[in-house]
Write a structure and sequence with these properties.
- Strands 2-1-3-4 form a 4-stranded mixed sheet.
- Helix content is 62%, strand content 16%.
- By secondary structure, the protein is of the alpha+beta class.
- It has 8 helices and 4 strands; from the N terminus they run ααααααβαβββα.
- It has 2 domains: 100 residues, N-terminal domain of the delta subunit of the F1F0-ATP synthase (Peroxidase, domain 1), CATH 1.10.520; 73 residues, Glutaredoxin (3-Layer(aba) Sandwich).
Length: 180
């Protein structure tokens, strides 16, 4: 586990607990991802890491950027991150929060790379097959990748890979030939 994940995990869990308590999972996800995008901005990232910028000034700047997005519980969460010098971890907090939310909602994200664009019918069939295989609702994201030479590769969740690409088949065939 990376050090940023180690630091971000308790904050992601706290946000998730609050979101479940207030039946607010989607809104928390939106707010955290928005804040993550804000702190990725070079200028904002500079403020966050600049020891000369006082917490109150940083918090005021972030509140100004976010406008009406931050109701009290989100603002309190942001205050905590700023006071603990953890605002720079918002991208990792958002990522871990979304992972907790997906697990809780029994959904799985699948990123599918295919050599050529899949038709809507092929996308539906693949999505249905993945839902059957994993026993969960699957959110599929499709992209074209000519480097795989044909077929497709599915990256589902954190550590599931289904390689049905021509490039993958060639690599496995070469490994089998080397072993013999």
């Amino acid at each position: 586990m990376s050090s940023s994940a180690y630091i971000a995990r308790p904050y992601a869990k706290a946000a998730f607990h609050n979101a479940r308590e207030h039946n607010d999972l989607e809104r928390w996800s939106h707010v955290l991802n928005y804040l993550a995008a804000v702190v990725r901005n070079d200028k904002v990232a500079g403020w966050i890491t600049d020891p000369r910028v006082e917490d109150k000034a940083l918090l005021n700047a972030l509140n100004d950027i976010c406008g009406d997005l931050l109701i009290e519980r989100y603002e309190n969460f942001l205050k905590l991150l700023v006071s603990k010098k953890r605002a720079q971890y918002l991208p990792e907090i958002a990522r871990l929060y979304d992972r907790l939310r997906l697990r809780y909602e029994s959904t799985l994200d699948a990123h599918i790379k295919s050599f050529s664009p899949l038709s809507l019918e092929q996308q539906r069939e693949l999505s249905s097959a993945l839902e059957k295989r994993f026993g969960k609702k699957v959110n599929c994201f499709f992209e074209e990748d000519k480097s795989i030479l044909g077929g497709f590769i599915v990256y589902a969740g954190e550590d599931n890979v289904i390689d049905a690409s021509v490039k993958g088949k060639i690599r496995r065939l070469a490994q089998d030939l080397i072993r013999e």
